[in-house]
Amino acid sequence: MKRTILITGGAGFIGSHVVRLLVNKYPEYRIINVDKLTYAGNLANLQDIEDRPDYKFVRLDICDFDAICQLMKEEKVDGIIHLAAESHVDRSIKDPFTFARTNVMGTLSLLQAARLCWEPLGWHCHSEKHSDVRIPCRLYHVSADEVYGALALDNPGGEPPYGSDFFREDTAYNPHSPYSASKAASDHFVRSFHDTYGLPTVISNCSNNYGPYQFPEKLIPLFINNIRHGKPLPVYGKGENVRDWLYVEDHARAIDLIFHEGKDGETYNIGGFNEWKNIDLIKTMIRTVDRILGNPEGHSLPLITFVQDRAGHDLRYAIDSTKLKSELGWEPSLQFEEGIEKTVRWYLDHQDWMDNVTSGEYQSYYKEMYE
Ligand code: NAD
Ligand code: TYD
Description:
Layout: E1 3-8, H1 13-25, E2 29-35, E3 55-59, H2 65-74, E4 79-82, H3 89-94, H4 96-118, E5 138-144, H5 178-197, E6 201-206, E7 208-210, H6 219-228, E8 233-236, E9 242-247, H7 248-261, E10 267-270, E11 275-277, H8 278-293, E12 304-307, H9 322-328, H10 336-349, H11 351-358, H12 361-370
Parallel strand pairs: 1-2, 1-4, 2-3, 4-5, 5-6, 6-10, 7-9, 8-12
Antiparallel strand pairs: 9-11
The structure holds nicotinamide-adenine-dinucleotide and thymidine-5'-diphosphate.
Thymidine-5'-diphosphate binds at residues 89, 208, 218-219, 222, 234-236, 241, 243, 278, 310.
């Protein structure tokens, strides 16, 4: 009997890369992708694997506890990789309730369903019930670095790193936005289920991701699309905030590794020691898009438009991923220059994907946010 892995949020940006990786790498698994298909979920992200016999998509809200329980029992789910979430800070500032609902209550619904399904099996996989080899089940919660809050910018004019401090696994939680508060709360619930009930869990906290299939409300795809169309680039504040960027396929590889080899009850930070000031990153994107489109150097620089800062804007994120490297041997595979080149080319080559996700509701979101 094949092991059945449920991936939540698999139609979103990172989730679609995780689903693709696991479907291609593990023919011995059945992969079930549970996604509500909010504005951020898009089945076109998975067209290349949608017909695989051991892959199944189920449209479901993770907050629907009864439906999740039923699915877990019917499909004999052995493991969960949980990525479904509301993920955009600016939306969380406008509508915090949706974030608490999906990120906190949705995670709680999965935890409780997993507990009810797996506790009677002694926390072991269905597939191994009648075998001597006992494989434990596991719920893997995918979280973000912003639960730790913001770091100081001690060295704004110099070279990266832009400060002496980094987020480590034992850094105290100090979230500032409704998004990061909801992710922090969900992390606490995951730990509480491990400590209280013995549910086998693992958590990772990753830095900002970039790459194909990211919804164009986040900095990198939004700006690539705007540069292409000669639209203003709304830089929050002075553009001095620092983010630590990781190519999405490197995150997906880390998730695969941690799901299979991470220790129960542990947390792993994921990041590539790749800090960028927003304004420097934006200039790099402008240079890359202009070069690929054959525009003269500096052509799109006048699109930079400094706008009012984001409320509660965290100054600097920087992840220390030493534990993941030393304990599980993970390292990022791509240099940033290579990753950004691939990413820019992907968006420029997939205008149909961009047109599809920016039609309809996106137009009113964009107007409200930026016009
Ligand atoms: P995304 O917004 O692109 O995708 C989220 C997916 O979850 C979508 O497919 C959406 O339809 C689905 N979803 C939302 N609410 C749901 C619900 N109630 N029930 C079922 N499905 C629902 O997000 P992403 O950027 O791919 O992030 C995935 C996960 O990784 C999130 O948990 C996020 O917090 C975390 N993360 C993201 C980043 C990043 O830079 N994007 C970095 C670190 C961690
Ligand atoms: P974002 O992609 O929203 O990710 P996060 O808020 O999780 O870090 O934003 C990345 C950085 O870019 C962040 O410092 C905010 C900034 N930003 C802008 O300056 N303008 C924009 O239009 C957006 C979306 C982000």
